[in-house]
Design a protein that fits this description.
Largest sheet of chain A: 7 strands, mixed
Strand content of chain B: 5-15%
Number of strands of chain A: 29
Number of strands of chain B: 6
Strand content of chain A: 25-35%
Number of helices of chain A: 18
Helix content of chain B: 25-40%
Shape of chain B: elongated
Distance between the termini of chain A: 60 Å
Order of helices and strands of chain B: EHEEHEEEHHHHH
Radius of gyration of chain B: 19 Å
Oligomer: heterodimer
């Protein structure tokens, strides 16, 4: 066991807030509509910006005429973003930007911009690898062999299963679209309000592109309406928004993307398709994996997915081909590449389990042996817990052997992993002589509960209530804290805040110890008091103690990484879906979802569970509904709106059961991020449940009625 | 290589009509509002029953919002949502889908929920407009808002004002909603973070609190 270290998380018995259910601090501001998002920022003399976008998926700009737009009364600036000659690689790419005194006039001006294009051949059919090869849109990026796959597949004892699996391109569909308000207050100073996941990082990006000194760019993001990985960078429309501000005589300019633009250009999750062969011994022990996989994330292809997912099968052959398409470029989507890798891997393994006539829970528990060493036990515990909560023994049946009527019920399971180590973070922590406490970090709250987590850690350390801590985030004026992505925020901000709060507390102890007649190391901060551990009669109220600072606030900086280990990395997790499939209509309904998740020490149980509930709902959405539907003839997106780019509604949500693995064996790992992992399994679990219900695999998600019916028809033909 | 020239002066659709153009072309009197959540708004009575054509330039009129009159001068094509957000700085109602699908822009007209993105501001004159800011003018949370906080029925919070409006309207008309009633009442709103789970508890808690409040 590691030696105790002064910043260590308190023992379970000494935590008065950590791990309890605390309501999010900004809940009242959000629920009452008072919270001001970037979209809501309306400084005086605000101009509205619009971007004229390419209607073509692949084209070259031939000519641009902005004269008429410029002369429209109320138009203050018009900028050409891509001059004639520039090649457009996706529908919706930015060509001209306009600022006007009203949004309506900006739209009128956009219509008066005349752009001619030379249309070039486009390609958007990522599902068809042969078509991509014919169109010269492929680039092989992985060709790896491990062990002896051929030998393993040919082993007479081997049971081999093969199939094609996949996950379509989807979008982020943030409810607050991407955008910003930019204001050049003079030629050298830029004020920005931006819906972003990177408050501390973005000012430097503006400064670099616009030739400003970084300290002269100040950015604010008090509240932001969803990012999911798509809002890290300063986008071209952000830079152009700033330039419009300068061109219009230092007026603030707001550009928030229209819904259609948001779905066209502001983020896509890469697709993944794969022809998979897997083999196991007759007892179910996995022996071999072969994958010929491909996917697209737009013009530059996509990152390499982690195949096979979670389980390190001993003998492998892997090919991966990046397919380049004319769609808006991919961005990190909550657990980048993992939901797709799960949909391909876990579904292929589930088909093998069915071929082996094995219960999938038993199959995955057995093969958990192939998971990273530290997670083998975790997966087995989680599989058992999830099966119990889903009443697996009661409702599971061998594949296709359930109900005899047209509506078939089935169960499916999946497992997942994620890192989630805390990012670099600085927390400036102040105890004021009047007793107020302030934690300032250049972080951001995406709705994950970052503010609340900071307050819980600070208050727990100081023996105060959550409402006694003022949390200041969302400004680049606060000390640098990392961007919020990859489930790194909770680990980062909780550790920097803990170190800062401990140092500040110890400084307060030192200041009041002489007066209390006790050593500083004998004091504790509990229940709004500073008191001697051995003699609670030697005590001061928090306010009395702070008053002894004689007008001099305590101010310290806590850092992450830093002394003492407060977090770690690498979680497991299991999801189970219980579905009903109407074999006459092809409609899938989820009856129940179970998530069992570990994430080390949980700071706020309430917002942690919300992350998991939300992930299950987002998972149901991408498993059943979401797809960027593209027209192969024109390369244009057919559903850049919210009627046809469908999100689950309240009525689509089944019973959700969330179980967090906590306590001995888990808490000791320290804080690990949670945003990504629980969103990974639902796609594979739901697909497996559908296969279990109807007896045949629907090859790719989303599991739309047409695909379900096609799979059922295919079964009819081969039977 | 097959190449063709195309001329276009607006993004999409090339030959299309934007929603605002449609509303403008269709005139004030005939553009009905879409259905929102619990409330079913009948086709708006003709704002100018004399048949007088207004616009296309800005015209002065009065909007009564949260009990107070606001004199505005707006083009007839300006939606109620944009009038509230861009001209009155009432930003609780959000613009998300901007075409009557997601409910983030929900406000009440004469006590019934509507999608303010699909209603013209000029249609709303003479009616009582209630935005989320009007539900809790003193800053004290309503039972519905408190229940959304307590049940963590929100994450990023961008859809939340719309859901609070929908839930408020639901409970106004139905103090003891069944699971099906809640599904209908909230069915006109969309959330991306996935906060529907907490919303069930929130609506039930608020229903209970409002009943207790009435008795007390």
């Amino acid at each position: 066991m590691a030696a105790p270290c002064k910043y260590d998380w308190p023992e379970a018995s000494d935590r008065h807030l950590i791990g309890t259910r605390v309501s999010r601090l900004d809940g009242p501001a959000k629920a009452s509509g008072r919270a001001k998002y970037t979209y809501d920022v309306n400084p005086p003399e605000l101009l509205f910006g619009k971007v004229v976008r390419s209607p073509h998926a692949h084209a070259r700009v031939s000519s641009i005429n902005i004269d008429e737009a410029k002369s429209l009364p109320g138009v203050k600036a018009v900028r050409i973003i891509q001059e004639p000659g520039k090649e457009i690689q996706w529908e919706g790419d930015e060509v001209v930007a306009i600022a006007a005194v009203s949004e309506e006039i900006a739209e009128d001006a956009a219509r008066k911009v005349k752009i001619e294009y030379e249309i070039l051949p486009q390609f958007v059919m990522d599902e068809d690898l042969d078509a991509a090869k014919q169109a010269a849109r492929t680039k092989p990026t992985v060709d790896e062999t491990k062990g002896e796959p051929d030998k393993a597949f040919q082993d007479p004892n081997a049971v081999v299963s093969e199939g094609t699996y996949g996950a379509a391109v989807i979008t982020h569909c943030c409810l607050e679209t991407h955008g910003q308000v930019t204001h050049f207050t003079d030629d050298q100073h830029l004020r920005v309000w931006q819906s972003t996941q990177g408050v501390s990082a973005n000012p430097g990006e503006y400064a670099q592109v616009l030739g400003l000194d970084a300290p002269n760019v100040e950015l604010t993001c008090d509240y932001m309406g969803g990012g999911f990985g798509s809002k890290f960078q300063v986008d071209r429309w952000g830079i152009e928004c700033a330039r419009l501000s300068k061109d219009s005589g230092h007026k603030p300019v707001k550009i928030m993307l229209e819904r259609s633009s948001e779905l066209l250009v502001a983020g896509a999750r890469p697709s993944l398709y794969g022809k998979i062969r897997v083999a196991a011994n007759k007892d179910g022990t996995l022996t071999a994996w072969e994958s010929d996989a491909w996917g697209t994330g737009g013009p530059s292809g996509a990152g390499v997915p982690p195949l096979p997912y979670v389980l390190s099968i001993p003998n492998q052959r892997k090919h991966y081909t990046a397919v380049s398409t004319n769609i808006g470029p991919s961005r990190a989507w909550r657990a980048p590449n993992h939901p797709q890798a799960a949909a391909v891997t876990i579904c292929a393994l589930d088909d093998l389990a069915a071929k082996l006539n094995m219960d999938p829970i038993e199959f995955f528990s057995k093969n958990a042996e192939l998971a990273p060493e530290g997670l083998v036990k975790t997966y087995r515990e989680e599989l058992a817990k999830a099966a119990e909560l889903a009443e697996w023994k009661k409702y599971w049946h061998p594949r296709g052997q359930g109900d005899s009527g047209p509506v078939k019920r089935g169960l499916g399971v999946s497992m997942h992993t994620w890192g989630g180590r805390g990012h670099a973070s600085n927390c400036q922590f102040t105890i004021h002589p009047d007793g107020s406490v302030e934690a300032a970090l250049g972080s951001q709250d995406l709705g994950t509960g970052t503010r609340t987590v900071i307050a819980v850690v600070a208050a727990d350390t100081l023996g105060l209530r959550v409402e006694d801590v003022q949390v200041k985030i969302g400004s680049s004026r606060y000390p640098m804290s990392g961007p919020s992505g990859g489930s790194t925020t909770v680990g980062g901000v909780s550790a920097s805040t803990r170190r800062a709060a401990v140092d500040a507390r110890d400084a307060l102890f030192a200041a009041v110890a002489p007066g209390l007649g006790a050593g500083a190391d004998q004091l504790e901060a509990v229940n709004g008091q500073i008191r001697a551990r051995s003699d609670p009669s030697k005590s001061l109220s928090w306010k009395q103690a702070c008053a002894r600072l004689r007008g001099k606030p305590i101010q310290v900086l806590g850092k992450n990484p830093g002394e003492c280990t407060l977090g770690s990395s690498g979680v497991g997790g299991v999801g189970i879906a219980d579905v009903s499939v109407d074999t006459e209509t092809g409609i899938v309904r989820v009856n129940r979802m179970v998530a069992v998740q570990d994430c080390g020490l949980i700071i706020d149980m309430k917002t942690a569970e919300s992350q998991v509930y939300g992930a299950l709902i987002m998972g149901i959405t991408y498993a059943l509904f979401e797809e960027k539907v593209l027209d192969p003839q024109t390369g244009r997106m057919l559903n850049p709106n919210m009627e046809f780019y469908k999100l689950a509604t309240y009525g689509d949500i089944p019973e959700l059961i969330v179980h967090m693995m906590t306590g001995p064996g888990y808490d000791e790992r320290g804080v690990i991020g949670l945003g990504e992992p629980p969103v990974i399994s639902p796609g594979a679990a739901i697909s497996n449940a559908v296969a279990n219900a109807i007896g045949v695999r629907v090859p790719s998600i989303p599991l739309t009625p047409d695909k379900v019916l096609t799979a059922l028809n295919g079964k009819g033909e081969t039977a | 290589m097959k190449r063709k020239k195309s001329k276009s002066n607006q993004p999409v659709p090339e030959q299309g009509v934007s929603r605002r153009d449609f509303l403008r072309g269709a005139g004030v009197a005939v553009s009905g509002s879409l259905l929102a959540g619990e409330g079913l708004l009948k086709v708006a009575p003709a704002a100018e029953s004399t048949g007088k054509v207004v616009g296309p330039g800005a015209v002065p009129f009065t909007l009564r919002v949260n009990g107070k009159p606001h004199a505005v001068t707006l083009e007839p094509r300006v939606t109620l949502l944009d009038a509230l957000r861009n001209h009155l700085d009432l930003t609780g109602a959000k613009r998300v889908c901007d075409r009557g699908t997601c409910g983030a822009c929900t406000v009440m007209l004469d006590g019934k929920t509507i999608y303010s993105c699909s209603t013209l501001a000029i249609e709303a004159q003479g009616r009582e407009i209630t935005t989320i800011e009007g539900l809790a003018p003193e800053g004290k949370l309503t039972p519905v808002m408190q229940a959304f906080v307590d049940n963590d029925a929100q994450q990023c919070g961008f859809c939340t004002p719309g859901f609070v409006m929908a839930a408020t309207a639901l409970l106004k008309h139905n103090g003891s909603p069944s699971a099906k009633d809640i599904q209908r009442g909230l069915g006109g709103n969309l959330c991306r973070c996935g906060t529907y789970h907490g919303q069930t508890g929130a609506v039930l808690q608020a229903a209970k609190a409002m009943k207790t409040g009435v008795r007390g």
